[in-house]
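Structure tokens please, single chain.
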Amino acid sequence: MTTSPAPTWDVIVIGSGIGGLVTASQLAAKGAKTLVLERYLIPGGSGGSFRREGYTFDVGASMIFGFGEKGHTNLLTRALGDVGQHCDTIPDPAQLEYHLPGGLNVAVDRDYERFIADLTARFPHEARGIRTFYDTCWQVFNCLDAMPLLSLEDPAYLAKVFFRAPLACLGLARWLPFNVGDVARAHIKDEQLLKFIDMECFCWSVMPADRTPMINAGMVFSDRHAGGINYPRGGVGVIAEKLVAGLEAHGGTIRYKARVTEVLIENGQAVGVTLASGETIRARRVVSNATRWDTFAGAAGSEGAVARPLVDATHTPKAERTWRRRYRPSPSFLSLNLGIDASVVPEGFHCHHLLLENWAEMEAEQGVVFVSMPTLLDPTLAPAGRHILHTFTPSDMAAWKDLSPAAYQAKKQADADRLIQRLEAILPGLGGAIRHREVGTPRSHRRFLGRMGGSYGPIPALRLPGLLPMPFNRTGVRGLYCVGDSCFPGQGLNAVAFSGFACAHRIGADLGLNPWALPA
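Here you go.
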């Protein structure tokens, strides 16, 4: 009888996105011997940063939740603090300024009452509905904020948290099956205001209200006023860098340029991984921070099946096929990272903007435009006299595949020029003020982030009952877990941080590493 080699590590985490890094650093802090394998040169994935000619650009969004100081929803603050790290942050006075059809311009003030007053001034006939809807979001948030957010797959945790906060648990369970649209229409009748709430959801979920879970909205619509939007000094990539420092301080290891090509499965259990180099590394538990499309075999949306998923078809659980019927990949993005003259930016310009000229184009190819100018908060990210302008718009891989190199370059530049022209509506003179320009497409996102189709996560393929169908961290393969935006509760840095806490807690329970007491 041949025995298998002993595992070298307690846990291997495939990928160093924020979900993977929170999982890894939490497990290292619990005493697990933890290894992170990252295919690229820097950590963070879409939560990373890169530097060019004196500019520090964020890979993904610059609008960051989870850096509050009180309660349990400040997940980034908690994740860093648990491994002895801290990010200096800069408070943003407004979450976002909307520039919408019909001259509907709304800036979401950090102060809740001021935001409600501003919105009510535009829709005075819906004063009661506005107040009731957003106050309902606070009810959801208060339930979340009353309990430490750990693994819902651990019965021991659920029993302890129910004993500590029974009303919050019952309140949270009440909202799990609901989507935002159901709640909004119960209180609001004005169609333009309902479309505004669609956009309130779309700005972070890439879905209208009918397909956005109420639990997620309760977090976002309230945390922006509770903890607020706070930008990490030095750029979003500092979060990943600090999590790596915390991981290493607690005995964990990260390896770069280490692309995993296969999860090793023996007798139905994940026992390690194989790298592109041919190296095999064994572990007691394996965590995939890749998307579920990249993790498991099967059809994968408009781009077709992934060429080589981490788990082959023989070992892919049936539940993953069900998940693929319920969810599809969100589009990727056409993104521009620009260095511009500061003189073109008017006094009082907000850091974050969203632009849409036609309601019918909200979910269309390159319909909604997102804009961030983080140098308004942290000027050190650009050379003196300059600002960063990071703008991106949803774009599907189907629009970019099968192009010749010349056609690809021509489309890339033409689409970027058209996007800059649209931005002149809120920044007149922008085109003549650009001093540095980089264009990314879905193909760029696929290449550098290693995500199928360059997607930024799953969205419902049909109308689903809130978060109930969203999978948790355990998979149908023993010893294999998933973390990140393909898991409950979905997309966004704070959401994947939740997923990381939950995954680390579940593995900690399986390995007997968790403390008995809940976090304070």
